[in-house]
């Protein structure tokens, strides 16, 4: 723990592992308020914050020099991924953490944002629409262990400089709706790297082929979900896509119409009997000089994006 009086270090630029502790004489989020020079901030154990009023005292939105922001809760998923029973989270807990994160709104200067262990049903309001909070400088965005989140926010596609988006372990997301891609004239205009990992119930992705998005997407990583095929819109619009990694997708039936891919990796995925590759397999393999594994590879382990 950190004793009170920490707020006197007003020249601090980088602060890792600040615990949001709420008991006794140890300092909490209110001690972050005066630290206006911070460029990097990592706050952990946010699940212990009892109300949004305490989160507001951190005054994150006033830290105009902040570039790197890490907001972490202790994961509620626990041993879920090891086959053990997943214990639910009450609606009251979900609402509380949603209100807490709504008050942890970052300043427009933030370029790199990590949110881990969040257990609200929807992501913070300042992410649902960039009209609420302009995150126009955001370049990289990581989500991890979203225990209860049911949808990805529509506001992300409006971010003009976002080039990396990773969502890891979100078992309650079952579909990615059309709003994720249609809330901007050119959705995800500079996105280069997209990783969707551990969306174990994800089956649907609404993306029609006439919707032009992600014109600069270079690398796509799909891991551990129920997708049977990649969306038609991806094949017809992601014209810059060169690297495709597919891991632990057991019901994949279609993998076609990606003429520019030069790097294909299939790990732990069982292609169905009716799986389809491009019409000219010979030409296809000629364009894919680095194929690590084709078809079933049950012994493959998770290697990360």
TrEMBL record:
Pfam families documented for this protein: LRR_R13L1-DRL21 (PF25019)
Annotated R13L1/DRL21-like LRR repeat region domain residues: 29-168
What domain of life does the UniProt record list for this protein's source?
A: Eukaryota
Q: Which PANTHER family does the entry link to?
A: LEUCINE-RICH REPEAT-CONTAINING PROTEIN 57, NB-ARC DOMAIN-CONTAINING PROTEIN
Question: What is the protein name given in its UniProt record?
Answer: R13L1/DRL21-like LRR repeat region domain-containing protein
State the organism named in the record: Triticum urartu
Q: What is the lineage of its organism?
A: Eukaryota, Viridiplantae, Streptophyta, Embryophyta, Tracheophyta
